[in-house]
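anyone else get weird line breaks when pasting these?? whatever heres mine. first is seq + tokens for prot A
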Amino acid sequence: LTAGIWESLLAKEIEDIETNLPDNIKLAYLPKLGRVKIRITGRNTTEKEVEKHQNLILKRVSEYVFSTQEKDSLEKVIGEILIQKQKTVTVAESCSGGNIAHKITSVAGCSAYYNGSIITYSNEQKMNKLAVSKQTLKNHGAVSEQTVEQMAQGVLKLIPSDYSIAVSGIAGPTGGTEEKPVGMVWIAVADKEKVVSKKFQFWPYRAENIELASIAALNMLRKFIQAV
């Protein structure tokens, strides 16, 4: 199970491996919003032979793989990581409107690591609740690296936790500009010592953008935690 890479790019990454597969071993790409499942199937062969090719793929795309268990979800895997490390997380959402919190709380036992969230949709609430500066919003706007990083740092103070996620973007279908089109989303993850942010450009469709932003944010958190 992979996240953080589109199906076409994933296929390109392992194109040579797929080309050199024996005739009785096949790959299938099963995409879902923000995620791609790679399924490897062998017929009239041995488990050891299938595992050999599977391991080649895993090694090549390891940075995108969040699980090798078919029924796992990204939010379940993150929960397991947080429990193992005895860490907690909180979330500041804008354009995702609580969808990240919904995903986290869909996992049984999340109270062991999830401390809460806040949805600060307006600039006023970003300033009042998360201490995003008025000057930052004036100079850079709500959808910006500077704003989302201040949101991530602000929610750590509002709801003390080990890690935070912050998301701000233009879900659409209206509200975009030439400089900041519909589908542009800034995401930040932080702990008490550092913050990392990234800009994404998704689609012109609101529901899809909310889901894509949520998956991207959770995947950023996974990689952030594992890099510590």
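and prot B, same format (seq, then tokens)
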Amino acid sequence: GAAPSFLVRDGVPRMLEGASLPMGVLDSLVGRSTTFALDAGDWAVLVSDGVLTDGSQWLMEQLQLCARLGHTPQQAAQTIADAAVRRAGEKQDDITVAVLRLARP
């Protein structure tokens, strides 16, 4: 299915996941939505399944470390993508990381 998304609030990562199947598996699709509030400073982190070849725990630890070190979203995305490439080794799949930080207007 689809890779989970992550929320980092006050330096603490949280996995946001729901049950899903890969697109095209079923003839019809019934969608589901989840609503939650984002606060200024929160990070929304979207990754492809290739980032999670080694599971999600390492990613949650990496997100916490990036937040503690004061990384920008770009630095965090690059750090995570580079680590995912190293961790995947020969079983590498597509690796995409997007880190978005909510800012006050």
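btw re prot B: The two ends are 35 Å apart (CA to CA). Helices lie at 57-68, 73-88.
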